Amino acid sequence: MATWLIYALGGGWGHLNRAIALGRQAATHHQVRILTNSPYAHWVETQLPQIDFSPSVLQNLSLQILPLASVAETRHQVQAIVQAQNYDCLIVDTFPRGLGGELVDCFPLLSSIPKVLIHRDIDPAYVQAKQVGKFVAHYYDTLVIPGEGDDVPFAYFPQAVQTLPWLMLNAQALPSVSPTEQPTIVVVAAGNQEEMAFWGQLMARLLTNFPAVTCRCLAYTCPPHCPPHLWVQEWPGMPVLNQADVVIGGAGYNTVFECQALGKPLISFAWPRQYDRQQHRGQRWAKLVETPQVAIDTVKSLLQTPRDQRESQNYGNGIGDAISIIETQYSQR
Fold this sequence. Notes:
alpha/beta
């Protein structure tokens, strides 16, 4: 049984969710360790047994959660873990050089370890400033592009391979949609803590404008100004999204592609991020808005169309293809 180390550092949900989506399916045949510093990782770890993980998957899948530390200490910890080389394949999510550039010093020592980059979109200005393309071309054996097609900086590299978007749950694993008499709006408050008050205030305005609509706020903590009885703390969030007639959220990877797979209209606010381009992603796959009033007007327009309460639509998941692609990296050596 091979051991995969997935580097998934990042302060939010995106890297952790994407790594677990891959790791939980790969863990049926491999040992998978996910290296993370997400503040949600400890809670997510407690939720793993509550979804459909088999005992063997739970045994083979582990989160290696870094303690809260200075940038220098985190860098030292990551380098020590990566340089230990007690794994068969290194899979790096999004940041080719590491979140803080810490992998640059490690990779020359890892010539015998296959290296795979999960190539989500990344800001071209960062790519140019750090000459990331040269690093990727030299050190990565394979680039797997989960769902964003040719519209990412290294899509033209010869080792790039595209898959469908990666999703936590396959269509067959989703609970059935429960028919309701009134529409449901789900607000996904999955961004930074500094953004929570915005989502709470939006919830208050939605309640005022749509008294005959069920409103839910999917979040790790209840945002300020959001009535607590409307707050839903649930992971993974796809079953909650699947009950929605309209979703409002950011334009991060998981929110966008989960709504796309489920066929749910997504009204998005593009939040600024250091490396991600939510504006760019939202323009392609969501109804991008800039103010709460425009979001409310868009909800009104969407709710005027006939409701569709059919069973969940079938959709593809790129995880299976990604596992096959990654397995070939070390089986051919």
